[in-house]
Amino acid sequence: MSLTQLFEPSGVAVVGASRTDGKIGYVAMANATQFEGPVYPVNPSGSGELFGAEFVPSVTEIDGPVDLALCCVPGPAMPDVLAECGEAGIGAAVIYASGFAEAGGEGEKLQERIVEVADEHDVSLLGPNTSGFLVPATDLRCSFASGVEEVPPGNTAVVAQSGGVAHVLGFQSRRQRRGVSAMVGLGNRADVGFAEAIEYFDGDDRTDSIVLHIEGTDDGRRLLEACRESDTPVIAYKVGQSDVGAFAESHTGALTGDHELYTAGFAQYGVPTVDATDDLLDAAAALGNSPSPQGPNVGVVTAQAGPGIIITDRIQRAGGRLPELTAETNARVDDILPGITYDDNPVDTGRPMPEFGDLVAAVAEDDRIDIVLVYELFEEALGLPVDTLEGLAERVGKPVLFATEGIEAELAAERDALEAAGIPTFETPERAADAAGVLARYARLHADDAPEATADGGRSLHSGPRGVPGEVPRDE
């Protein structure tokens, strides 16, 4: 399956486009018209123009390039719509309607039918029961949610089982000033699922990290193999540690399965897991904007002891280690700033000072250190050590993370300069420490001698614990 027509269409048809403000067909058309290519409103009852484009009665009568159909029509109409898409040479479709497998009974049969029609006509389906997707760099806004035009382009691909969670992550990425390369709600995954999306975004030049939100899947082996084969780092958030199975099944037609089984399987296949949406984006920023960590050893430099203690504690609980610095580095630190509060690991200066960036460079160049984490409360008179740290991560081949806080208007420009210099920034010591912990776990999982043992005594998604190779067990 190629998803090029889905995410890189020459033109877009909005099937069921409507003049009525508030209807999905209206909002989807309003969002789609921002696309750089042609967008066609399709409705046999429509006449005149909508957002400057002439109504077309059917996709088969579109006179122009079109690869993608956004389907804003009820579920029972979808088999005929997909057949017309196939006739028109449209290779991808998004189905917003619900009432398919998540509804059970007749809905399951209808979902089977649309998959048959799509296979027959070689149409890739996103959904059904999805709120769509977004590719900000090309203004491809295939969502019926308001405000998606404000999500900026970035380098993280969001692949969420829930369209709602996909949009949560997209809007969070805006709040964090990071953006996304794409934001995708998979919905029921009748056709396009996790594996297909991972494979596509692994080959996407705009994507440097992939984050997954997962409720459940009946093809665990394929998901994990796609993660393992991806050269682009993948981070997963598996929900359902408590009993939410029935609710999840009614949402996207998926049972949540055994949570420990999922997390053990992800660990086996090199995917670190997190437990919050913010953590997903922080981990993506750390992995996507940094050199790959070669080990779990973290060097901490802090200008305030209190945040440094929080970081030191949290990193170790998150999977990182804080080794002693080499004697050479200790001597170098003492030469730079004699008599500082604490000169091992973490290095604590007690307050910001002009030599702070030199201390960070000294720790980063220590052979025992794989990851560097810096905390400095912003003082306007000193600023942040942007000039000293610019190019440091690339020069030493190690991730350098920086956490800071202060008055937004005062620190914004210098924090943005750090980001532009390849140093991911964070607003709290906890978030920075957790991101460093993900880097440490990622390094362990990708070490040449990474163990195959699982977290639950040997059961794994790979081994098929209930006699079905590679499948996640369904709740019984």
From TrEMBL:
Keywords, sorted A to Z: ATP-binding, Ligase, Nucleotide-binding
Domain of life the protein comes from: Archaea
Catalysed transformations (reactions): acetate + ATP + CoA = acetyl-CoA + ADP + phosphate
Listed EC numbers: 6.2.1.13
Annotated segments matching region Disordered: 449-476
Residue span, CoA-binding domain: 6-100
Name of this protein: acetate--CoA ligase (ADP-forming)
EC supergroup of this enzyme: ligase
A GO term, aspect molecular function: acetate-CoA ligase (ADP-forming) activity
Classification lineage: Archaea, Methanobacteriati, Methanobacteriota, Stenosarchaea group, Halobacteria
Alphabetized Pfam families for the sequence: CoA_binding_2, Succ_CoA_lig
Residue ranges crossing the lipid bilayer per the database entry: none
